[in-house]
Amino acid sequence: MKMIIGGAFQGKYEYAQENFKLKQWIDGAVCEEDEIFQCQGINHFHDYIKRQLLEGTPVENLAQELIVKNPEIIIISDEIGYGVVPLDRFEREYREKVGRICTELAAFSLEVHRIVCGVGVVIKRV
Amino acid sequence: MLHIITGGSGSGKSVYAEDKILALSGQASKAKRIYIATMYPVDEESHQRIEKHRRMRENKNFETIECFTNLKQLEVPNDSYVLLECMSNLAANEMYLDFGAKEDTVKAVLEGIDLLLRNVKELVIVTNEIFSDSGIYFEATKYYLSCLGNINQELSRKAENVVEVVYGIPVILKGGSL
């Protein structure tokens, strides 16, 4: 498993395509729920989590399930936890959950790349 | 010595900070570990958060002292290993609670930290990266952010180490890895 993280609009997807030549990326904003367990790579992973939360699907085991079912996946996710604590309860939960899930996945990942202005910094490599 | 741990929401910075205090205080059985808790419980959600953090450090041998404002008045045993969590709450309390320092927030917090540093062996402070919003709508929020930003900068200047925790991964901004 590898992760590519950073703020929105930082060129994460382009960086990923360049560095990891995958045949197929799915889009977390629109993909089927189960596709995540078969795909090679997922873009907009934070949107996938948001959709699960909006549908009322529990996400507590998502990280573990992904680790077991698709340990080779490459994940692209926005870092959304760097703003003022949102007033809206759902937004607070969403922000917290993305953090917790990505922390769990980062612990398992062999590499974590953080992208700022299109430039990737490897913050973890095992 | 002072060590600053920062990071975004849900980034694992609390766990990292707790582990750092354990590492700093080592196996010395006499080492006194103090947790300065700053979250002022206002509603169900804050009670739950407090409970969650209590459980997280349950077996780590901390004595918890609550401090919502006026850090200067806080009595902490000499030579203890202190974890203060978190600066964003302490600053908000000083600014918004009736008995807070209001417009003297930055001064009150920094003076409190200076006093603590005189007595304790090690001080680890957890703060929060909440500065990257697309738009800040309220003047009061903007003012709060400027105060917390100033506090963070001032503390980092004094600190031996500054570490940003990104999804559990320490990214060293100043000094070593603790």
TrEMBL record, chain A:
One of its GO terms (biological process) is cobalamin biosynthetic process. The keyword DNA-binding does not apply. GO terms for molecular function: adenosylcobinamide kinase activity; nucleotide binding. The keyword Transferase applies. SUPFAM superfamilies: P-loop containing nucleoside triphosphate hydrolases. Keywords: Kinase, Transferase. It holds the Pfam family CobU. InterPro entries: CobU/CobP, P-loop_NTPase. This is Adenosylcobinamide kinase. The lineage of its organism: Bacteria, Bacillati, Bacillota, Clostridia, Lachnospirales.
Automatic annotation (TrEMBL), chain B:
One of its GO terms (biological process) is cobalamin biosynthetic process. Its EC number is 2.7.1.156, 2.7.7.62. The keyword Nucleotide-binding applies. CDD domains: CobU. Pathway: Cofactor biosynthesis; adenosylcobalamin biosynthesis; adenosylcobalamin from cob(II)yrinate a,c-diamide: step 5/7; Cofactor biosynthesis; adenosylcobalamin biosynthesis; adenosylcobalamin from cob(II)yrinate a,c-diamide: step 6/7. Belongs to the CobU/CobP family. Catalyzes ATP-dependent phosphorylation of adenosylcobinamide and addition of GMP to adenosylcobinamide phosphate. It catalyses: adenosylcob(III)inamide + GTP = adenosylcob(III)inamide phosphate + GDP + H(+); adenosylcob(III)inamide + ATP = adenosylcob(III)inamide phosphate + ADP + H(+); adenosylcob(III)inamide phosphate + GTP + H(+) = adenosylcob(III)inamide-GDP + diphosphate. Pfam families: CobU. Gene3D superfamilies: P-loop containing nucleotide triphosphate hydrolases. This is Adenosylcobinamide kinase. GO terms for molecular function: adenosylcobinamide kinase activity; ATP binding; cobinamide phosphate guanylyltransferase activity; GTP binding. GTP binds at G7, G8, S9, G10, S11, G12, K13, S14, R54, R55, M56, R57, E66, E85. The active site is at H53 (gmp-histidine intermediate). Keywords: ATP-binding, Cobalamin biosynthesis, GTP-binding, Kinase, Nucleotide-binding, Nucleotidyltransferase, Transferase.
